[in-house]
Write the structure tokens for this entry.
Amino acid sequence: MSKRLEAMRANPAADWRIRDVERLCAEYGLRCSAPRGGGSHYKIGHPAIADMLSVPFARPIKSVYIRQLVRMVDAVSRA
């Protein structure tokens, strides 16, 4: 497991930025798509799982989104 994932798991309420989310997604092979057409949410997904996660660009990213991202990474790691 990466240090970033463990840090997010240990402290989801920290001042996480969208670039931290993008880097974690890249480490685990998740697709992280930037908003298009004036949107404000990044879309995160992986072909191995059916769920899609939508994370707002606003900073700091709320802990609920970080927890969902950690669960998604765990699901991809098991698949």
